Amino acid sequence: MTRRQIVVVAAVIVVAAVIVVAAIIVAVVATTGAPRATRTYRWAWWAVSPFTPTGQRNLSFLIRGLIPTLALSAAAFAVSVPIGFGVALTAFGRGRLLPAVNRTYVELLRSVPVLVMILWVYYGLPVSVGLDLNVFAAGVLAMALSDSAFQAEIFRGGIQSIASDQLESALSLGLTRRQTLRYVILPQAIRRILPALGNRFVYMLKISSLVSVIGMQELTRRANELTVIEYRPLEIYSILVLEYLVLVLLASAGVRYIERRLQASYQE
Predict the structure, then answer these.
(1) Domains of the chain
(2) Helix/strand/coil (H, E, C) string of the chain?
(3) By the 8 A CB rule, do 254 and 246 touch?
(4) CA–CA distance, 157 with 177 (Å, rounded to integer)
(5) Taking Cα atoms as reference points, which of 72, 71, 54, 67 lies closest to residue 226?
(6) CA atoms of 40 and 37, how far apart (whole Å)
(7) In angstroms, rounded to a whole number, what is the distance separating the alpha carbons of residues 224 and 210?
(8) Cβ–Cβ contacts within 10 Å for residue 189, how many?
């Protein structure tokens, strides 16, 4: 058995153990300390079962929220990365002005909760600057602005982790600062910060649920609407948990795959 197979088997065992322990805890609570209403709750999995017409319709309604969730997260991430990289470069500017701009931007945007940023962008921009955005654009802008501050710190740390003697050697060979950044510093820095960038994308997938408060038809919004119709919150939100679990696991596996490819190409 290869090392990868061992890791996969171990992961499956851990997940199964967690599920079993959680089921035992739920069963104990349901039969002992839970209120009477909880003990007599009758699960209605038919509402989300793929083997019943109602379940098929409800599952189809929920699954159609995957594309908006992925599109929202990917777009916000694609916008936040270049903004964060540009803000990170100001930390290395000469003088005091650009580093001060960097610290101000990072500290201000990191201090604002994402939900507050979403509400302000959607409701505040039309009033303050006359910019009326739809729910998708408002969600992308708010998530990108919030995430760009963290991206800036990730890029700054990655660039600073490269030894200064490499910068001096590149400059002594006749490369300009821009060429040194492009051909010497960034390739090494990106390889080092890739896990952190992947974690930020996973985080974007999860916080995309907050955009449901302004009407975005993503996974969480659809689950909320279906709960109002079917009035089966536990069953529907259990499916919602599974949907996010699958998304996060797939995104994490993709990041690890890219990381291995970059590591292999570097060793070659």
Answers:
(1) 66-216 (1.10.3720.10)
(2) CCHHHHHHHHHHHHHHHHHHHHHHHHHHHHHCCCCHHHHCCCCCHHHHCCCCHHHHHHHHHHHCCHHHHHHHHHHHHHHHHHHHHHHHHHCCCCCCHHHHHHHHHHHHHHHCCHHHHHHHHHHHHHHHCCCCCCHHHHHHHHHHHHHHHHHHHHHHHHHHCCCHHHHHHHHHCCCCHHHHHHHHHHHHHHHHHHHHHHHHHHHHHHHHHHHHHHCCCCHHHHHHHHHHHHCCHHHHHHHHHHHHHHHHHHHHHHHHHHHHHHHHHHHC
(3) no
(4) 18
(5) 54
(6) 5
(7) 12
(8) 21
Q: ∠ at Cα 199 (237, 11), nearest 5°?
A: 65
Per-residue pLDDT of the chain (268 residues; tens, 9 = 90+): 555 545 554 554 555 445 544 544 444 444 445 455 555 778 888 889 889 999 999 999 999 999 999 999 999 999 999 999 999 999 888 888 999 999 999 999 999 999 999 999 999 999 988 888 999 999 999 999 999 999 999 999 988 888 677 777 777 777 777 788 888 888 888 888 888 998 999 999 999 999 999 989 899 999 999 999 988 889 999 999 999 999 999 998 988 888 888 777 666 5
Tokens 């890219």 -> residue: 258
pTM value > 0.90: no
